[in-house]
Amino acid sequence: MIPKIELATTTEIKSFQEQKLVEILNYVNSNSPFYKALFSKKNIDISSIKTLEDLSLLPLTKKEDLQKHNDDFLCVSANKIIDYATTSGTLGDPVTFGLTDNDLDRLAYNEAISFDCAGIKEGDVVQLMTTIDRRFMAGLAYFLGLRKMKVGVIRVGAGIPELQWDSILKYKPTYLITVPSFLLKMIEYAENHSIDLNNSSVKGAICIGEPLRNQDFSMNVLSKKITDKWNIKLFSTYASTEMSTAFTECEHGVGGHHHPELIIIEVLDAANNPVKNGESGELVFTTLGIEAMPLIRFKTGDIVQLHTEPCLCGRKTMRVGPVIGRKQQMIKYKGTTLYPPAMNDVLNDFDNIESYIIEISTNDLGTDEILIKIVVKNPTPVFMQELKDHFRAKLRVTPKIEFTTSEALKPLIFNPMSRKPIHFFDNRKNIL
Asked: Can you spell out the DSSP letters for 170-237?
């Protein structure tokens, strides 16, 4: 089910996207109070924007804009909104996204072609191990996409390994949709209850929320820990509520495939200029085909690298590599630039570590401080030194680390108001 545009030449894809760009700019200029006012204030003549290169003439949209002017982004009347989704806001309150009937159809199409990338086909059964409620767009999107593909769905929801295994053994799903670190709990439960992991029906997992690969696409520590014990194929996917679009790996595992009919993407440097080929920068997108709340040049805050060589699967679209980190979460520590995923990888190297959180704060000198709190099976001074040495070897610096208890960390990591586990806490006074 590969869309024809994803098999087209680079020139054909560019021409197609430029046509769609003109359409979406005319649409928001007519229907979006926010963009109409922004273009007028900046004296922008949208008729002069005809190519992807011309995008640089348009202002960027930030999450703060959505927070401050949420309702002004709506391009349709309230009676056209069928579903209300929310995402976290940088200023405290969540940002609301309304979706029309057509937007829900687009969401289903997006997930259908994304799951097709990962090899899910009609006749498969998929266990949905993420919430579909609490105004969470992704859970609904997964269900709509699988329904469009005529794939069976088991809506188990998040957590509870026993319930997950009961469903696997009863309904025999072929794929799971889950946060990858939860698969480690699934493995632990199976081992403790004499469940034969590799004799189950599961052959693959679509993994959300956490990276599976290093920048060279080799498996990271987390994915190795999973596949060393459970012989299943892991597929990484990258998405957000704001983009209503997913970038999912195919069987070759070399980045999430771009769907040019749904989204235009740019990668910009710190000065908001396009990076050179092969360089990393902040992912910026413009949505296509969205009725209720399209976004123009929206800054994601995610630092990524694009890959443009054709994929062995036949798709000729760009691919988004593993997220290097969040721009806002960049840490300057003792002269070294760090992102939380790099520290996660070091901590995941140790089976002795049961759980952890990373806290960032500002010290009296105005610079970043890192405190890592860990729960370990056998907390000894020897292990602490081994962990600090490993940090120094991998990242060139050693943060402050202290032992704590599972009782202290559990309510922080599994906050009932969060849709996924939280391991990173940024308490800095002046966040970058």
From this structure: HH--SEEEE-HHHHHHHHHHHHHTT--GGGSS--EEEE-SS--B-TTS-B-HHHHHHHHHS--EEEEE
Q: Which two tokens stand for residue 179?
A: 């946060």
pLDDT digits (tens, 9 = 90+) for 274-287: 999 989 999 999 99
- Written as six digits, the tokens of 218 are 């080799």
Q: How far apart are CA 308 and CA 317, in angstroms?
A: 7
Question: What are the beta bridge partners of residue 328?
Answer: none
Q: What is the pTM of this model?
A: 0.84
- Residue 87 dihedral angles phi and psi, to the nearest 5°: -135, 160
Range with the poorest average pLDDT among 131-140, 182-191, 301-310, 362-371 = 362-371
Could you read off the pLDDT of 77-104 as tens digits, one per residue?
999 999 999 886 555 578 899 999 999 9
Rg over alpha carbons for the chain, rounded to the nearest Å, is 22
Tokens of 268: 């910009």
pLDDT of residue 89: 57
DSSP-derived letter for residue 306 is E
User: At which residue do the structure tokens 């590799």 appear?
Assistant: 198
Q: Distance between CA 18 and CA 286 in Å, rounded? A: 12
